Each structure stands twice: as structure tokens, then as C-alpha cells.
Amino acid sequence: MAAPIVRRVIKFAGWLVLALAVLLAGVIALNWDTVRRTVLGGYHTHEVEPPDLPAGLQGSAVLAFSKTNAFRHEDAIPAANQLLKDIANARGWGFFATENSAVFSPQILSRFDAVVFNNVSGDSLSEAQEAALRAFIEGGGGFVGIHAAGDGSIPWDWYRERVIGAKFTGHPMDPQFQLARVEVESADHPSTRGLPPAWNRTDEWYSFEASPRAAGVHILLALDEASFPNHKAFGKDLAMGSDHPIAWWRCTGSGRVFYTAMGHQASAYGEPEMAAMLAGALDWTMGKQRPDCPAAR
Fold first, then answer.
1. Pairing state between β 94-98 and 61-65
2. Nearest 5°: phi and psi at 231?
């Protein structure tokens, strides 16, 4: 009597496992792009045919690059590009946004004064394209990195060490987005002059292995870790203590580099403080204010 029952249980279990496998396969198929980007190492595509630049691109100009071969901030990228375009238009600068990595050639980069990595992620540049960007920055070009541009997914040691200057370790989960207190540490930089001494805002808060302060980086904004409750992700403690920078500047060769870890959500780019910070950051990296970095030879 027991044998038929056992067989029925085994048969039911087999059908259940099959159903779960089909369900899982369906979920993966529907979200294959996200799985590929976040679990399977992302994409490794690099364009070889450059985009056409706008015919009227004259004078000072900003290049906004938002290629994502790893995690993609689908909503934040267009919101940030619109804000960057508005800032450029208000100052009479040219503006070009692209996800075509072939824009990184010496000839094309010579048309721009600053490059913005708008949530760029993953292996987004070929070795030749990396070399062109490095020469641009070290030769006196400006660079602005936003949020994912410093998340550690870009597999380029020089970029992490000499541009970002900090090794990403993660961000809290459960909750992922938290209201926290942002404090201005250096109020005399163009990117911070229009900001209040401190304010509260919600974001996905990045943590780094160590503060970049020791590497000669100039800290602009820091987090008050006591102002938000969760500093963990999957059991890992990401707290940095009393020195948790989230925006800074540095010189890389003759290039002016600004990075902010803020900006995961599209709503960030509608905040007046974010707009003021990025406008000031562009003013500085474009070379319009404060020649903090040595002139190119």
C-alpha cells in the first residue's frame, strides 16, 4: 500500500520541480538583458563607426556619454542628460549625448572641453578608446563622473585609481534607497558654492573600501552615516564611519576631474541642489572657473 503512495509523491515532486524550472526559465527569458548585465558579466561591445556630430557644434562643448555594458540606470540616464543639456544651453555651450563608444578618438574628443560619464557601467570602451580618453584627461580635458561611473564595474585600473580614486564596495539593501544628511565639506568650490551647508535627500548610497582623501583627492560632500539606519547589504557591513565622501575633485595630469556618487534615480536630476552641483562641476571642469590643475604643456 505504501509503495503506490511513494510513487505518487515522487511523481508529484517531479512535476513540481519541472514546473518551477519552466517558471524560472520564463522569468530569466523575460529579464535576460538584466541577468546578462548584472549576473553574467555584462556585455563587451565597442562601436567602431563614430557618430556624426551636430553640424552646428562650435566653441565650448560638453560630451555626455552613457553607454552601459553592465547595470543600466534606465530612468536616470535620460533625466541626467536633459539636465546636462539644459546647463550647457544656458551657458551657450555645445552639447552632444551618445552611447557610441567610437566617439572616443583624439580627433572627436578635440571638439569637446569636458566629458561626462553619465552612469556609464561595465566594459564600455576598447583599449584604443581608453587611450584616447586618458590622453584627453591628462592633456587638460575636463571629466565629470556621475553615480555608476564609480561603481567598480568599469574594468580599467587607471580609471579607478587615477580618475575615480576609490574602490566601490557596495550599497545598502533593504532598504536600497534611504533619506540621509548630506554635508558640504568644502564650500569654496564652484560645485558647492550654491549649496546649503547640509540638506537631506534620498538616494542609493555608495560605499567605498577607503576614503579617497588619503590619495590627494579634495572632498566636497560627505554623508552623515548616523542620519540613515541601514549600512548593510546581504549581511555585509558597508559603513565607512566618520569619513564617507560622496563628491570630490582632483587633478589627473592637467585634467580637472569631478565625481559624485549620487544620482541613481531620475528624480535626483530635478532637485535644485543636484542641478546647482552639476552646473558648478561643469563650470569648473570646462575650465571656466578656478584653474586648480597644472596647465597642459
1. parallel
2. -120, 20
Question: Is the Cβ–Cβ distance between 167 and 209 less than 8 Å?
Answer: yes
C-alpha cell at 296: 597642459
State the pLDDT at residue 290. 79
Residue ranges of the chain with per-residue pLDDT less than 70: 1-3, 6-7, 9-14, 16-41, 297
With CA atoms as reference, report the closest residue to 97 among 57, 130, 127, 126.
57
Length reported for the chain: 297
Residue in this structure with the C-alpha cell 567605498, named with its chain if needed: 208
This model's pTM is above 0.90:
no
Report how far apart, in Å, the C-alpha atoms of 85 and of each of 82, 275, 277 are.
5, 11, 15
Instruction: Give φ, ψ of 296 to 5 degrees.
Output: -65, 140
State phi, psi for 164 to the nearest 5 degrees: -70, -50
Tell me how far CA of residue 67 lies from CA of 34, 112, 152, 192, 280, in angstroms: 15, 18, 15, 28, 24
Domain at 61-285: CATH code: 3.40.50.880
Q: Are strands 61-65 and 114-118 parallel, antiparallel or unpaired?
A: parallel
Matching residue, cell 542609493: 204
SS3 18: helix
- Of the candidates 80, 75, 57, the one whose C-alpha atom is nearest the C-alpha of residue 145 is 80
Q: Where are the domains of the chain?
A: 2-30, 61-285
